[in-house]
Structures are given as C-alpha cells and as structure tokens.
Design a protein that fits this description.
With 245 residues, the protein is an alpha/beta fold. The protein has one domain: TIM Barrel. The chain is built from ten helices and eight strands. An eight-stranded parallel beta barrel has the order 1-2-3-4-5-6-7-8, surrounded by eight helices. Helix 2 packs across helix 3, helix 6 runs parallel beside helix 7 and helix 8 runs parallel beside helix 10. The radius of gyration is 16 Å and the shape is globular. Bound molecules: SN-glycerol-1-phosphate. The site of SN-glycerol-1-phosphate has 13 residues, from strand 8.
Length: 245
C-alpha cells in the first residue's frame, strides 16, 4: 500500500500521530530505539528530518536502523534536496509556501525531483505553512510566519495549497515553540479544506495535543517530547491516547 493511501485510510477513521526524529540529535542506533518506543506508544508513522546539520549518510544510516525495528511508514521530512534516502518509504514533497526565498518554494524541489524518481521514493505533495513563532525552521526557511491572530491568512494559504494539487497541508509553529498553532486557526483551516491537515510544533502535553486534535487536526506531529522525556513510551502513549480517544 502506498503511504498516501495509508494516511488517507487512517484519517478517515480517526486521528493520527507521527513522531519526528531529527537524525542530528542522536546516533542511528538510538534513533531506532526511539522509533521502537514510539511505535509501542501508538504512533502511526516516523518522520525523519531537521533544519540543520543533516548529511545524507546520517539520513541513510538513521532510516536503516529505524526500518530494522519498526514496520510503520518512515517518511522523509526534508529541509533540502540533499537528504533524500532510498531507504525511506515516502517523502513529503513539500513547498514552504510562505517563504520569501524562491529556493524554499520551488528551487530545492527542482533539484530533488529527478532523484526522487531515480530512488523510487513515493512523493507526497504537501503545502508547508509556518505560523508564528516559527522557531529555527522559520528562520532557516526565510518564512514570513502567519501571525497567530490571523487565521484567515492561514486559511488562504491552505486553500491555495489544496487548489495547487497538494494532498496535505501542514501548519507548523516550529520545533520547540512555546505554544502550538492556535486552536482557532486549526479549526478555521479544517472547516475550509478537504485534504488531511497536519499540525506540529510546541505540542508536548496530552492536554495541548487533545485541544489541537479536537480543533480539527487530522495528524499531530511531535518531536521534542521524544528528546526530553526519559520514559518515551509512557509519556508518548499518554499524549497519543489523548489524541485518539
Ligand atoms: C517540528 O512540528 C514538528 O517540525 C515538531 O515540533 O519538536 O515542538 O514537537 P516539536
């Protein structure tokens, strides 16, 4: 089954959770352990990526270790065309729509397209939209973040993504954001689009995860929680239960 079909089936039946692992933050072996704990906690897919410091070799080794221990999809969440790996199941073929830099909107995609084809990776077209504060990805991606008080602008970008043919929309507050994307922005976007809505950045507690899911996110992404918690499985399962119950 294609990863996009897997996602569409899951969001038809309920909410999904995806765990983001940054290959630059631990050894490939430790990344495998993290993925295993996340899978046991109920996560539905592993996303691999980060804003800085990633080499192709690190990407390849990390994905291989993860694939050894879990069977859920492993999806590349790229920061550039240099991190493509044949070992992943799919790739978010994404455009940072509210960037000031044309390279983030279409340049890296042009650089990577031929390799995606050669490697046989499944590309999942995604509109990536940075919401304040945006954190490192907002800075590196030269984004003009959507103001937290402007849900209408987030709706306009999200609808534009859908009309351009993108199969998913991702509202990103930035890894480690003090607060997630506002719930009223999530619900405003959910009301208007018909493709799966992904929300991430700053979601570290079951309460916040529940409120974002209730507001209409189909897929919740968490990354930092697996880096800061010692007992990853129990902390993550509390958060995932809050999303799915
Ligand atoms: C970042 O949305 C993800 O791209 C995850 O954010 O690290 O804050 O969970 P956190």
């Amino acid at each position: 089954m294609k990863v996009m079909e897997y996602i569409e089936q899951h969001v038809k039946d309920g909410k999904m959770h995806m765990t983001l692992i940054d290959p630059d933050d631990q050894t490939p072996e430790t990344a495998g352990e993290v993925a295993k704990a996340a899978k046991s906690a109920g996560t539905d897919a592993i996303m691999i990526g980060g804003s800085t410091g990633i080499t192709k070799e690190l990407m390849d080794n990390t994905i291989r270790e993860i694939k050894k221990v879990v069977e859920i999809p492993v999806i590349i969440f790229p920061n550039s065309a240099h991190v493509l790996s044949p070992y992943a199941d799919a790739l978010y073929f994404m455009s940072l729509l509210n960037s000031r830099d044309v390279d983030m909107i279409i340049g890296q995609q042009v650089k990577g397209a031929i390799y995606v084809k050669k490697l046989g990776l499944e590309p999942i077209p995604m509109g990536y939209i940075i919401v304040e504060p945006g954190m490192t990805v907002g800075r590196v991606g030269k984004a003009v973040p959507i103001p937290r008080k402007n849900p209408e602008l987030a709706v306009a970008y999200s609808l534009a993504a859908q009309y351009l043919g993108m199969r998913m929309v991702y509202l990103e507050a930035g890894s480690g954001a003090p607060e997630p994307v506002p719930a009223d922005m999530v619900s405003a976007v959910r009301k208007e689009i018909s493709v799966p809505l992904v929300v991430g950045g700053g979601i570290r507690t079951p309460e916040k995860a529940r409120s974002i899911a209730k507001a209409g996110a189909d897929i919740i992404v968490t990354g930092t929680i697996v880096e800061i918690e010692r007992d990853i499985e129990s902390k993550l399962s509390e958060l995932i239960n809050a999303i799915k119950s």
